[in-house]
Automatic annotation (TrEMBL):
InterPro entries registered for this protein in UniProt: ADNP/ADNP2 (IPR038861), ADNP_Znf (IPR045762)
Keywords recorded for this protein, A-Z: DNA-binding, Homeobox, Metal-binding, Nucleus, Repeat, Transcription, Transcription regulation, Zinc, Zinc-finger
Name of the protein this chain belongs to: ADNP zinc finger domain-containing protein
An individual GO BP term: regulation of gene expression
Superkingdom, taxonomy of origin: Eukaryota
Domain ADNP zinc finger residue range list: 2-67
Lineage, uppermost ranks: Eukaryota, Metazoa, Chordata, Craniata, Vertebrata
Molecular function GO labels: DNA binding; zinc ion binding
Keyword Cell membrane carried by entry: no
GO cellular component, one term: nucleus
Region forming the signal peptide: none
Amino acid sequence: MYQLPVNNLTRIRRARKQVKKALGDIGLEFCKEAAEEFKEFCPNEHIVKGTLCLDICAWDPSYSKTQVNLISNL
């Protein structure tokens, strides 16, 4: 497959930087709007107390690879 050579590479790079900056600004604005909407949200106390929070992380920092090797060799 043949690809045409790229001309005026500096212009393309400049345009990419501008697009990246614009997308970053849009994302920042979206996050700020979402944060403002979240500030208005205040659930009732009985909703907060009735919420079940589970720890789904099974990773234990004390459970190292050497411990796994010792257990599997038994």
